[in-house]
Structure formats: C-alpha cells, structure tokens
Amino acid sequence: MKTTLVIMAAGIGSRFGGGIKQLQSVGPNGEIIMDYSIKDAVAAGFDRVVFIIRKDLEKDFKEIIGNRIEKEVEVAYAFQELDDLPNGFKKPEGRVKPWGTGQAILVCKDIVKEPFVVINADDYYGKEAFVKLHDFLLNEPAQVDGKLNLGMAGFILGNTLSENGAVTRGICAVDDRGYLTDVLETKGIEKTADGAVVREEGMPDGEVDVKNYVSMNMWALHPEFMDVLEKGFTEFLENMQPGDIKGEYLLPIIIDGLIKSGKAQVKLCETHDKWYGITYKEDLDYVREAFKTI
Fold first, then answer.
1. pTM higher than 0.90 for the full model?
2. pLDDT at 77
3. Where are the beta strands (DSSP E) in the chain?
C-alpha cells in the first residue's frame, strides 16, 4: 500500500520574528528540519511527500529543499491560499491569517488519495513516531463500526517544552484501550527546574504533569477524512461571525469534535522521542546543537 507524508509549510511564523522559520538551516551541512523528517519518514516506509506551501514561497521553497528532495522520493505540491474557498464564500476584507490546518489538508484533496500522515514543517518528531503511524496506516482499516479510524502520535509533555518561553500543547486524555477521549488545548506551559507550570495572566501558576501525553499535530489519516474536512469547512465558514478575520479551521478542534460526536476514534501511538522545534528565534541555537547528534 502506498503511503504519503503531508508537510504543512504555509504558516506564518509570527513569534519567530516574521522570518520563514520552516526554511531555517539547522543541520551541520545546511539541512533544514524537513530534511530530517523526510529522511525518517522514508526510512519508515513512506513513498511520497506532499508539501503544502503558499504560492509566493514556491520558488524559494524549491531552491532550498524541494528540488533536492525530488531526487530521493516522489514529491508533489499543494497551495494554501486565502481565497481558496467553497463556492459562495469570499475572503473577508482585512484577512491576512491562513485559514488553519484543516483547510491546509483540504487543499490536498485532489492530490492525496492514499493513507497519509500530517506533520508541521518546523517540528522534528523523531524516528519512532513515523514508524508507529506508518504501521497504523498499514494495519488499521479506514473505518471501524461506522467511525473514522484515525491515529495520532502521543508525545510526552516533558519532551516537547521550549527552553525559551511558553508553549501551547494539546494535553490528551486516553481511555483504557489507548484511544483519545479529549484533547485540552493548554496555553502558557513553561518549563521549570523540576517540571512545568501553566501561567495565565491574573491566575496563580498551576503545576502540570510533564508525563502527560500531548498532541504535536502529527496525525495518521485516511482519504475518507477529506470528505469530512470539506463538509466541515463549509459549516465553519457559515458559522463565522461577521468581521471575524482571525478564526481558524484547526485539525485538533475538528478531530476532537468528531470524537465527541461519536464519528471518529483516534488511537494514541505513544512515542518517547524528544521533539525539537523552532517556536522562538532563540530556539535556533539549541536545535542546531541537538541536530549535531541526530
């Protein structure tokens, strides 16, 4: 069975200071994070890579990574644009923010017809997660008892924290079968000397267990998921409040809604690998040092 890695690289890295953080060199020979993710994915058995980018990034993107990767694995491109909307809808005046990860995957509908894994371009997930999610796609059916059957890499919170500031993580609740029951989007998680705390303005610090599972937006999905995304995006646009120019159609919220409504089940595929990412510009030096040993 053919499997595809879908890489979301169209986001705007505002906290990184406006630069294109997905294209920052982190490896000793100029490699970017995507180089390492693609290498791990191919080693795990993925046959194809689809890059989701903005059209205005295409030339630079191909020069920095795309043309090189095409020599190693089959490559395709999908373009996430603000005006790529269903019939009857138009981009609100003043909208500059992308429509979110749900729309990003939806733009692949005519390109991705096989089971696939989704990742962020600026996150390094480690080898174990790719192997486990690839095995899930090969061995698990697309639906079970009428429910979509999805997978998610479950990271240990302590392996995903930044040394340079607060992060947002989806803290997971799991049933005794190993399936997600809830993903609580938690903002303001900061690493401490002996664990982590959640800091919210006007609220006392709250300790958070660093052994919790968290979602890092790495999902194993089947093509049937695209139809759900398409219908859901239209509903999302219909329900937007007038003047809302920042609302996003986000994968974690979409999938959580499917779980709560009984339309999907999501198997948590545990990984103990350390996550590396560039949330802040100051993370670059730390990540570069880490990639010397990966």
1. yes
2. 97
3. 4-8, 48-53, 74-79, 116-120, 123-124, 143-144, 147-156, 167-174, 180-192, 195-198, 206-207, 213-221, 264-270, 276-277
